[in-house]
Amino acid sequence: MNGIVTDIQRFSVHDGPGIRTTVFLKGCNLRCAWCHNPETLRPEPQLQVLPARCIGCGACIEACPAGAHEVRGGEHIVHRDRCTVCGRCADVCYAGALTVVGREMSAEAVLAEVLSDRPFYETSGGGMTLSGGEPLVQRGFALDLLRGARREGLHTAVETNLADTWDHLAEFLPLTDLFLVDIKLIDAAEHKRWTGAANEAILANARRLAREARPMIVRTPVIPGVNDTAEAIGAVADAVRDFPNLVAYELLPYHPLGTAKYRSLGMPCPLEGLERPSAEHMDALARVASERGIAVRVAGAAAPARA
Ligand code: SF4
Ligand code: SF4
Description:
alpha/beta; disordered C terminus; nine-stranded mixed sheet; Alpha-Beta Plaits; 2 domains; binds iron/sulfur cluster; two-stranded antiparallel ribbon; about 30% helix
């Protein structure tokens, strides 16, 4: 089966145990206002434009069959309404200003890339992690990848927002060694406001996953003005503290990395001008959660985990 992949990140150490390869699948069913991976939101490939890299050679104008590139008054304009994402301009842009984000790949091709690092998994206890976007959006492809990884004896992890039916999620149980579960807000109205979706099914799925006793790490992205309070983090910790399968609770500080990415994709950025929470504030929130008697980690600055 084929799927659309935005990235295959080797030597990942933040998405499960050991050294891992994280496969990012395109398409998400939530619209979190703080998403710093906007390239994974839409299911289809997109043209990404980095004007700072453009050297004005004009090769893209020549290559584009749709007339989507134009230089007017020294400014390079991309008419996205004409673009069919054929990728021809990106092929000739040697400056690296143009890229097509999201490539169609077979499960076999993805697994071949994942398996090239097998020795590292074996020595570190690592494996393959599926992330996104939301892996369940490309459910058939994700399941194919997990089956293939299992056949090869790899440890498997799935990062999911749980915003799907239990029946769909249940298909992943026999193939997944570790679930990395995002729980962003407990307050139903706030969750709807900031992610575009209700959280009743998400929380019900989390409780059911807990009953299935599959190892689970719960993650909360900490977003200034959204959920960076003791009340909001304490509410999540209260909801998960009795899960018998809880390996750890992780707090992920907001990172403003995504703002420029929205521009490069021609997408509006819902939240601009936010600062990353201070280390002291993250530590204070971690203490709020650890007071509930659960193991809490704050994700490192170098590689903010996805949410
Ligand atoms: S091909 Fe790349 S570097 Fe050349 S004009 Fe187009 S965007 Fe700029
Ligand atoms: S991806 Fe294709 S249609 Fe879109 S701007 Fe580039 S060459 Fe033109």
